[in-house]
Design brief:
79 residues, 2 helices
């Protein structure tokens, strides 16, 4: 019985995926829509800065604030 249900689930998933792919029309993405006004493209440096450097810097700032604000760490005491 489990094999039959698995086969049915696979068929439904494959059918749904196929229908979704057939319903989309990527060829229409080539034509411009009314009011479509794309700006100038990004350079390689701007792209790397926006999608690589900025998230890394943001992560480091947040991690630094968490470390500085951590009160549970014990300060070493001199004896």
């Amino acid at each position: 019985m489990d094999k039959k249900n698995a086969l049915r689930a696979g068929a439904v998933t494959a059918g749904t995926t196929l229908m979704m792919l057939l319903m989309t029309s990527p060829a229409l993405a080539v034509t411009r829509d009314d009011g479509d006004d794309p700006g100038p493209g990004l350079s390689i440096a701007e792209t790397l800065g926006l999608y690589v450097a900025a998230p890394i810097v943001l992560f480091l700032v947040i991690a630094g604030l968490v470390i500085v604000g951590d009160k549970s760490r014990k300060q070493p005491t001199e004896s």
